[in-house]
From TrEMBL:
One of its GO terms (molecular function) is oxidoreductase activity, acting on the CH-OH group of donors, NAD or NADP as acceptor. It comes from the Bacteria. Pfam families: Mannitol_dh, Mannitol_dh_C. Residues 28-277 form the Mannitol dehydrogenase N-terminal domain. The lineage of its organism: Bacteria, Pseudomonadati, Pseudomonadota, Alphaproteobacteria, Rhodobacterales. This is Mannitol 2-dehydrogenase. Keywords: Oxidoreductase. Residues 285-468 form the Mannitol dehydrogenase C-terminal domain.
Length: 487
């Protein structure tokens, strides 16, 4: 059955579908970056509110700023912007059709249509999922990268921007000049302090072309921080076939685990849906939730993905089945990450580690180690280095985290243990492979990346075990290094 408004009632009875009248929904949110995560997370929470008869004036308008976004727009438009979500639970899978999205802005050079849509008074939130590396952060200073070519273009051509941020600024200028008022900028990306980072990007970019507007944005817009969590694999032929098994022809179905979490700072300048009535948490302690999730879950992903790739273990669940990789995960988490994480109302660090072990072990989630290992140059400094520093601040050993860093260096050499080639898997892959080759003889060359490691190369408590592990990795191999650590 081809997915569309017209066929919703003809779907198999086992499939949940919208019970609300989608023709009566009105928009309140523009979301830029209509990837799988958004459709399985923010869109799902909103859909669940609509199922309760709530938030009918908060429907989502999809958007993108790159030419490749047009393919997604066309696929979604052909099925009335509906998405099939398939929950992959070891006890049994289920499907649900989500209908919170009602339109998608045309993709065009200069983003004029997007700017005008965000400038309309019915839009009160502009949300984004543009990945951790998409916020133009200077890796050395963690401040705004004003030298990026796309940023320079947007500063010189504010009415024909290339970036989502340039388009948001142009829309806010129209809103200010028309007396419409500000909107909330809501990052749904996996960054600690994501709202503060979004504020930094918008205000800094606006400052380059219109300082008065930058002040207005800073003083009037709000940028709530949030922690987002749901494991959502990429969609490929298997996922399309799985949707077909449920009796649905969906061009862009989304599979996901049976867990979601969304913790949000309640700071919305133009109103918001009551997401808490669908299971989200509004909290003044977003940072605490972020720290727990980023260090234990995201850090844990990095702990296992590089050795998994090197040993040709294709998925995260298979890594958790591998006796050495799973033991590495548990020992590093419990000895070097968990002790520096504070509890939150729902979880102690111990119960959260146990939850993550269970989630990572879900065999129904075909989440590839390659996907998780992608962009280590953003993920290692964001997810692992804070734990390294927390250990050193307490004068505790970092032997396991040093091994994880050495495994990343070995991974970036570009070959697996069996000699097969690792295709480029980082925006800076060529730089990383060159440094990894140099570090084979001179380990400190890898730690010289100060934008990632800061001054850690000068601290023998970390640099010494890192060098020792890298030497073992090259002389004896990955399994030998893991066994040596686990003794």
């Amino acid at each position: 059955m081809k997915l569309s408004n017209a066929t919703l009632n003809a779907l198999p009875e086992t499939i949940k579908r919208p019970t609300y009248d989608r023709s009566k929904l009105t928009p309140g949110i523009v979301h830029i970056g209509l990837g799988n995560f958004h459709r399985a997370h923010q869109s799902w929470y909103l859909h669940r509110l609509m199922q309760q008869g709530l938030a009918q004036d908060w429907a989502i308008i999809g958007a993108g700023v790159r030419p490749y976004d047009e393919a997604m727009r066309l696929k979604l438009a052909a099925q009335d912007y509906l998405t099939t979500l398939i929950e992959l639970d070891p006890a049994g899978s289920s499907a649900e059709v989500v209908g919170a999205m009602i339109d998608y802005v045309p993709i065009e050079e200069g983003n004029g249509a997007l700017i005008e849509r965000m400038a309309q008074p019915d839009i009160r939130i502009v949300a984004l999922t543009v990945t951790e590396g998409g916020y133009f952060i200077d890796p050395a200073t963690k401040g705004f990268d004003a030298s990026h070519p796309d940023i320079l273009h947007d500063a010189e051509n504010p009415w024909q921007p290339r970036t989502a941020f340039g388009a948001m600024i142009a829309a806010l200028k129209l809103r200010r000049d028309r007396g419409v008022g500000p909107f909330t900028g809501q990052s749904c990306d996996n960054l600690q302090g994501n709202g503060a980072i979004l504020r930094q990007t918008l205000v800094s970019l606006a400052q380059m072309s219109d300082p008065d507007l930058a002040v207005w944005i800073d003083q009037n817009c709000s940028f709530p921080n949030a922690m987002v969590d749901c494991i959502v694999p990429a969609t490929g032929p298997k996922e399309l076939a799985l949707a077909a098994e449920f009796g649905i022809e969906d061009q862009v179905p989304v599979t996901h685990e049976n867990f979601r979490q969304w913790v949000i700072e309640d700071d919305f300048c133009a109103g918001r849906p009551d997401w808490d009535k669908a299971g989200a948490t509004f909290s003044d302690n977003v940072h605490g939730y972020e720290t727990m999730k980023i260090r234990i879950l995201n850090g844990g992903h990095q702990v296992i993905s590089d050795p998994g790739e090197l040993l040709s273990v294709g998925t995260i669940s298979a890594c958790m089945d591998h006796p050495l990789i799973s033991a590495l995960f548990e020992k590093v988490e419990r000895e070097e990450i968990m002790p520096h994480v504070a509890p939150v109302p729902e979880f102690t660090p111990q119960t959260y580690v146990a939850l993550i072990q269970k989630r990572f072990s879900n065999p129904k989630i075909v989440d590839t180690t390659r996907r998780v290992a992608f962009d280590g140059s953003s993920r290692h400094p964001g997810f692992l280095v804070p734990s390294i520093r927390a250990c050193l601040d307490r004068d505790m050993p970092v032997v396991g985290l040093a091994l994880v860093s050495a495994l990343w260096a070995r991974y970036c050499l570009g070959t697996m243990e069996d000699g097969s080639i690792i295709e480029p898997n980082d925006p800076f892959w060529s730089d990383l492979t060159a440094l990894a080759a140099k570090a084979k003889e001179e380990p400190k060359a890898w730690l010289s990346m100060r934008h990632i490691y800061g001054d850690l190369q000068d601290d023998p408590r970390f640099a010494a075990p890192f060098a020792r592990w890298l030497s073992i990795l090259y002389s004896e191999g990955v399994e030998a290094a893991l066994k040596a650590y686990l003794v």
